[in-house]
Amino acid sequence: MSFFNIIKLDAISSTNDYLKVMRRSKNTKDMDLVWAIKQTSGRGQRENKWFSESHKSLTISIYKNFKDSSIFYPFLISVIISISIVKCLEKLNVPNVLIKWPNDILSCNRKIGGVLIENFFSNGKLVDSIIGIGLNINQESFKNLHNASSLKIETGENWDIQYILENLLVYINKGFKDLEDIDEKKLIDLYQTKLWKFKKKAVFYSKNSNFEAKIFKVNLNGELVLKIKGKEMTCDNREIKMLYDNIPNSTSN
Fold first, then answer.
1. What does the domain layout of the chain look like in residue ranges?
2. Residue 248 confidence (pLDDT) above 90
3. Per residue in 24-47, pLDDT tens?
């Protein structure tokens, strides 16, 4: 983990918010990583709450400086982080790991983690990002979150959280290098091979109703290109929400 500067804390409201305060104070360095044993006000996409149990979840945020990079499509950061998580968990023999668009992590069709990335721009150019990652490791109770799960539930094993982190950071560090070296289209192609429901019909929620569509592809802006009755429709995650199977307008951890 030597390529990251790890700041380990007992309890904070949000690792992303902690790094944002550091950033505003100009105290951040490239590859700073905040690791909270307990996070009290974690956030997911669409301002959803992220519920994590102390000593049973992994909650981290990474500060990454992109001032000297030439990343034209910020969505590729989400792509590389999601792929890194999937590769790490597959290496650890977690079953059926996939990405639920745009950046939830599933095992056996249930959510075990997620990514929240906040990008910062200057004169239209990406300069830095705060990358939040949450993984349910040894949690076994999720209240009324029927789609939520954990590594322990899916594998039957009790996991060492630091061991998971050490393995994950190896993949993320390589992912940052791939972001600079690998062709954009190849990254999207790889993301699509790990995408839940890719080339299949899925259910989405928009404008107070559900609809069914086939996922045709994901573009470089992170938008889904759907096919409905032979016609293509391009949507971003502010316009539609991808649902779990058989649960109307479902929510999850």
1. 5-193, 201-242
2. no
3. 999 999 999 999 998 886 555 545
3-state secondary structure of 33: strand
- Angle, helices 161-181 vs 75-91, to 10°: value is 130
Q: Is the pLDDT of residue 51 over 90?
A: no
pTM for this entry: 0.93
pLDDT of 224 > 80? The answer is yes
Distance from CA of residue 59 to its chain's centroid?
12
**Mean predicted lDDT score pLDDT of the chain:** 92
* Class of residue 38 by CB neighbours under 10 A (exposed 0-12, middle 13-18, buried 19+): middle
Instruction: Provide the CA 4 distance to its chain's centre, in angstroms.
Output: 19
How far is 74 from 142, CA to CA, in rounded Å?
32
Question: CA 191 from chain center: how many Å?
Answer: 12
Segment 89-121, tens digit of pLDDT: 999 999 999 999 999 999 999 999 999 999 999
Class of domain 5-193: alpha beta
Cα–Cα nearest to 150, from 81, 252, 40, 245? 252
The H or E element spanning position 61 is strand 57-65
Q: Which CATH architecture has domain 201-242?
A: Roll (2.30)
How many angstroms separate the first and last alpha carbons of the chain?
28
Spell 1-28 as b/e; 16+ CB within 10 A means b.
eeebeebeeeebebbbbbbbebbeeeeb
